[in-house]
Amino acid sequence: MADAQTQQTVEETADYKYGFVTDIETEVAPKGLNEDIIRFISAKKDEPEWLLDYRLKAYQAWLKVEEPEWARVNYPEVDFQDIHYYAAPKTDEDGPKSLDEIDPEILATYEKLGIPVKEQEVLAGIANSPNVAVDAVFDSVSVATTYKAKLEEIGVIFCSFSEAVIEHPELVKKYLGSVVPAGDNFYATLNAAVFSDGTFVYIPKGVRCPMELSTYFRINTANSGQFERTLIIADEGSYVSYLEGCTAPMRDENQLHAAVVELVALDDAEIKYSTVQNWYPGDKDGKGGIYNFVTKRAACRGKNSKVSWTQVETGSAVTWKYPSCILQGDGSVGEFYSVAITNNYQQADTGTKMIHIGKNTTSKIISKGISAGKAQNTYRGMVRIQPGAEDSRNFTQCDSLLMGDQCGAHTVPYIEVKNPSAQVEHEATTSKISEDQMFYCLQRGLDPEEAVSMIVNGFCKEVMQQLPMEFAVEAQKLLGISLEGSVG
Amino acid sequence: MLEIQNLHATVGDKPILKGINLSVKGGEVHAIMGPNGAGKSTLGNVLAGREGYNVTDGSVSYQGKDLFELEADERARDGLFLGFQYPVELPGVNGMTFLRMATNAVREHRGEEALDGMDFLKLLKGKIADLDMDDALLKRSVNVGFSGGEKKRNEIIQMAVLDPHLMILDETDSGLDIDALKLVSAGINLMRGPEKAIVLVTHYQRLLDYVKPDFVHVLRDGQIVDSGGPELAQKLEKEGYAAYGADEAA
Amino acid sequence: MNAETPLFAEQFEAARPALPDGNASWRQLAFDRFAALGLPSQQREAWRYTSLAALRGELTGQALDSAALAETVAAQKIDGALHLVFVAGQFVPELSSALEGIDGLSIGNLADSLDDTTVDQIVLAGGENPDEALVALNGALVSDGVVVEVAEGASITQPIQLIYLGNPTGLVNIRNIVRMQPGSRATLVETAQDANAAVLNVVNQVTVAAEARLDHLRVMDDGAGANHIAQTRLTLAEKSHYEGFALLAGGAIARYEVQAVIEGEQAHCGLAGIGLGTGKDVRDVITHVDHAVPNCTSDQTFKNVMDDHASSVFQGKVTVRQDAQHTDAIQSNQNMLLARTATANAKPELVIFADDVKCAHGATVGELDADQLFYLQARGLNEQTARQLLIEGFIADVFEAIGDEALRNHLRGLASTWLHGDGWGDDA
Prior knowledge:
The structure holds three protein chains of three kinds.
Chain A: H1 4-22, H2 35-44, H3 49-64, H4 104-112, H5 117-124, H6 134-138, H7 141-153, E1 157-160, H8 161-167, H9 169-175, H10 186-194, E2 199-203, E3 213-214, E4 229-234, E5 239-245, E6 256-257, E7 260-265, E8 270-277, E9 291-300, E10 306-313, E11 318-321, E12 324-327, E13 333-342, E14 347-350, E15 353-356, E16 362-371, E17 376-385, E18 393-402, E19 408-417, E20 423-432, H11 435-443, H12 448-464, H13 469-482
Parallel strand pairs in A: 2-4, 3-5, 4-7, 5-8, 6-9, 7-9, 8-10, 9-11, 9-12, 10-13, 11-14, 12-15, 13-16, 14-17, 15-17, 16-18, 17-19, 18-20
Antiparallel strand pairs in A: 1-2
Helix pairs in contact in A: 2-3, 3-10, 8-9, 11-12, 12-13
Chain B: E1 2-11, E2 14-24, E3 29-33, H1 40-48, E4 53-62, E5 65-66, H2 72-77, E6 80-83, H3 95-109, H4 117-131, H5 148-162, E7 166-170, H6 178-190, E8 197-202, H7 207-210, E9 215-220, E10 223-228, H8 230-239
Parallel strand pairs in B: 3-8, 3-9, 6-7, 7-8
Antiparallel strand pairs in B: 1-2, 1-4, 4-5, 9-10
Chain C: H1 4-15, H2 25-37, H3 66-76, E1 82-87, E2 90-91, E3 105-109, H4 116-124, H5 133-141, E4 146-150, E5 160-165, E6 171-180, E7 185-193, E8 199-208, E9 213-221, E10 227-236, E11 241-248, E12 253-262, E13 268-277, E14 282-291, E15 297-306, E16 311-320, E17 328-337, E18 343-346, E19 349-352, E20 358-366, H6 370-378, H7 383-396, H8 405-419
Parallel strand pairs in C: 1-5, 4-6, 5-7, 6-8, 7-9, 8-10, 9-11, 10-12, 11-13, 12-14, 13-15, 14-16, 15-17, 16-18, 16-19, 17-20
Antiparallel strand pairs in C: 1-2, 3-4
């Protein structure tokens, strides 16, 4: 028979356990991952029952899966219970008070990229700076609304994922998880359970989206990019170009970024997806830095559909991503253009998978890897031609540039062909910037850093040409900056 | 403009230049001739500051400054131009962009304003017209897939646009047919001027028919063993280098 | 450890008494290593495309008809070579050449040459890495092989040919130790033709000393249903030269694995091969050339022609270590598929830590060019002949890697026989 004190203790404990659920106005869930947290997240976002179910099933599956170890990257174990899965508390007490407290290297980069001071404050997470995505600061809510209105006129849906769940549940339900199923891999499973927010795009039949859709224009809460979930659907005969990312190094307390991006292209549709990623790469000694584990996949479902991935990866301490294309529809086309730069202690294991299923499918892979400092850069790709992929073509060119002898560049391509009419060509080279090339540039008056930047940009030219204009210029600057300290 | 005193230099461990003395003033055209292995290219590379070439003795003053105090790119911005014997390829680097960047680097150094795309194009078109060439080469990546002649023409275009003070042209005539040679020579002659000095490093005499030198020097086994006027070149053409001693083992 | 281990343990115990040094501790050591590793499953990257199911059943020996043997052997002997014949994993002197009296060449069968040095060498080779379980198994069960040492400066012009004949249900383990002393030269040819061993597990340990050169050819043309796994562990010293060539044309599974470590500067490692497959054949090539020092070169050229449900595998790896500056390494893998049901798998891998290097690889997969076929047919050749001609053309240049002209023609002839054989080349 329990005494009064014991009973009180029990009651108090019971209250604590459920406390945060009853008090939905709180923005914060405590650290750790369990079913309650997931329910909390789902409730917080007002999600329908089916989506909560989706999350819970994924969570159950995640408990059974093991973290993969085959990638050529080493990193200290991630403690999954030491993460906030909903809106990490960015109280002003915790953040830096002024730009003076920010790593001078980062400030130097902001300067070089021409970012105004106010914007720098937002990026660096200075106390009292507005809690919204970058460009929206200066182009207030009204601009974003005008933009949205214009798109609405032609039937283009471009909103946050959370919004889409509420406004367009049929579409979300139809396509969510259809390209990257919840059980696909460790991080995709985690993402399916705890995804925070992301982008939803739907382009209706025959519509050519008149402007480049950029995440700059999406109003969202900072720090929700941790478990981003993006879904883009291009209906028959449509076209969209989507840009994500930011050239400025984004500081984030959250180390683990495990996003999932699903693209669906129906008959004669085309999606162009460009990324410039420069998450905080860690300091010169390899401390800190973001782990960027992303699953990106495109289903080219329709006949003659096309998906083109272009990425410039210069940040993150550890990058693990393989934007892929499933070329299902006859005549579909998959392209992958990538520049991956690693410096200091960064590690990248990135590449693509092109799975040819339909007839007359084509894929093109151009990968340029640059290693400097003590970094390790691996290209890992798979080209698979299934038996029914009559007359398919693949061309792959992976080139690696080594700067210095302390780093490594590795190429691991898998080529699996089960149809004789397919033509597959793969070439890879590894080299360094030759002394002759350097001297030639120096003798024409360029200083060593300019020379390296020029040669590296030349090396990456084929990829950079794929980027939409506004990104291209910044990305070029970024290449030069990322390689600083690697010359001489 | 250029004072070379007792210059000794090695390539790696091997001594190549063994005491060069040479004085080049503004307005002059000098020709340096000699058999292979004499050190002709080495001289150009040492003056331009290429890595791997070590000065072991002697001094060089350029425009009154100690040349060796400057890095290779600093010398270039100070107006020292080396025309390469074998210009290297720069894949993906657009010729026009490269030249504009180099031009602006020099201009900035001289305290002049950088040229934007339009203004640079104007400058370029003017220079190319004077040279009687066209800008097709510049639309391609620097030297990529260029024939020998195209590479030399490209060097001349760069030289014209960068407008250097001291031009060291390393075997600019090698591999050229007569028409290309005439074109290249015309380009070199256009660069003459009271504030300009040109040093032609060559093996053959025929370039000197088109670009008449004021002085001719014979480089043999790392030293200048003879100097004279243009007639020295004619003599070498007839008699070769035998008069200057037997070939040493390479 | 896995389910097969008890089965193998039984076979090991049963086989020991008949093996040379059967009860020695080194065999136990090798077997323990194997037991700890178990047979590699297809989950292992290096075994991704090849199944060792054949090894999971019971493998017992069977006597062979000696009269028929003599005839078979005679047909396989290469003119002018020194012949060593191994039947069911045992050296048969009566069918082989005399081994004494060749200046500069010290050669004998393994069973009679198990001195400490040789034993140590066997024990040291492989066994920690789960992919090398078969090397460990070979150490435990090896019955015979050859120990060859070519003296310093000696140049052996006569090719040394090892002829392997197995038995249809047996597991045969052969281990060859080859020591090329400084400045020596020799040519070694291993042939397994209609060999008919259920599993022929060969391990070669080759050391090429300074300025020595070994040309090492291999014909893997085993009988239908046979499985032939050849593993070579190779070290190259300064200014040495190794040219390896393999023709994978027979057996259900033919797997050619080479691990080369280049330890001395200015050395060259060349690996070339041709894989021909039909039915459900598997032609598996897995190489690893490790450039540990600067200024060396390596060249890998492998071409495969797969028909019917056959599949080819090329997992070629080049590692260039941090100090191995001025390395020049090339890999090329070209595959031709002749049927909708055939497969080509390629994974040419580069692992590079030095920056002043030239490393490149290329891989292609395609089919017979329709325009070329039509051209030949328009000149009067029937389709089958035209196809054979084009395929021979496709693989022709790989044979150039073979230095000795007589051997080159011999192997070209073998390939040609395969290409003109029954049931091959017809459009399904």
